[in-house]
Amino acid sequence: MKVGVLALQGAFREHIRMLRELGAEAVEIRLPAGLDEVDGLIIPGGESTTMRKLMADFGLVEPLREFAASGKPVFGTCAGLIVMAERLGGRRQELLNLIDIDVERNAYGRQVDSREADISSDALGPEPFHAVFIRAPRILSTGPGVEPLARYRGQVVLARQNNILVAAFHPELTGDARVHKLFLQLFDRKARSLNRTGGHSTPREKTA
Ligand code: GLN
């Protein structure tokens, strides 16, 4: 399979390295035409305001929406999560709108810009995952179709809605490839449809 990593800004090289370590073909994407050649996409961490502007300048917003709507897996980390969220601080953001979550930017305060913590997740297996948070966003609530996959201090930090996966932390900065493996599992259509009925009866969940 061939995976694109949006390479406008931020930590895209680390994702490429990790994908290649897992045996996937990984390429940098900067223009809409690049999306035609890949089966899935990672939107990396960085600075969401800059990324938002560059996505608009490069004419990527609508192509990215269409890419996700076609069912191809899209994984966003940190700033990537922010630009993919439907809501920012309770207000609908006019951007990609790929996942039904409400997000607050830089929510952990300036003094604790960066922190590392072991999180546990059934989706990742029995061993805790060492998560690196860098000026991380906080997921304030998740919609009924969103499946929380990991929490840190009660708050959802890894979540999935069908073909869309988001992490508030930076899994590409550790040597642990389990989150990327989870993403690559979404390329298997059958695995994706299995959970499609997952959360429909669940109400919106406040996580913060
Ligand atoms: N604080 C950044 C933002 O709001 C995200 C930080 C990151 O991606 N590590 O865009």
Q: What's the CATH class label?
A: Alpha Beta
Count of all domains: 1
- Tell me the number of strands: 14
Query: Order of SSEs, N→C?
Result: EHEEHHEHEEEEEEEEEHHE
Specify the biggest β-sheet: 7 strands, mixed
Strand content: 25-35%
Residue stretches low in confidence (pLDDT < 50, at least 5 long) are 194-200
Structural class: alpha/beta
Which architecture per CATH?
A: 3-Layer(aba) Sandwich
Rounded mean pLDDT is 92
Count of alpha/pi helices = 6
The CATH topology turns out to be Rossmann fold
Rg = 15 Å
Shape: globular
Task: Give the N-terminus to C-terminus distance in angstroms.
Answer: 37 Å
Description:
By secondary structure, this protein is α/β, with parallel strands linked by helices. It has one domain (2-196): Rossmann fold, CATH 3.40.50.880. Helix content is 24%, strand content 35%. The protein is built from six helices and 14 strands. The strands form three sheets. Strands 2-1-3-4-13-12-11 form a seven-stranded mixed β-sheet. A five-stranded mixed β-sheet has the order 6-5-7-10-14. A two-stranded antiparallel ribbon has the order 8-9. It is globular and about 40 Å long. The N and C termini lie far apart (37 Å). Mean pLDDT is 92; it is low at 194-200. Glutamine binds next to helix 4.
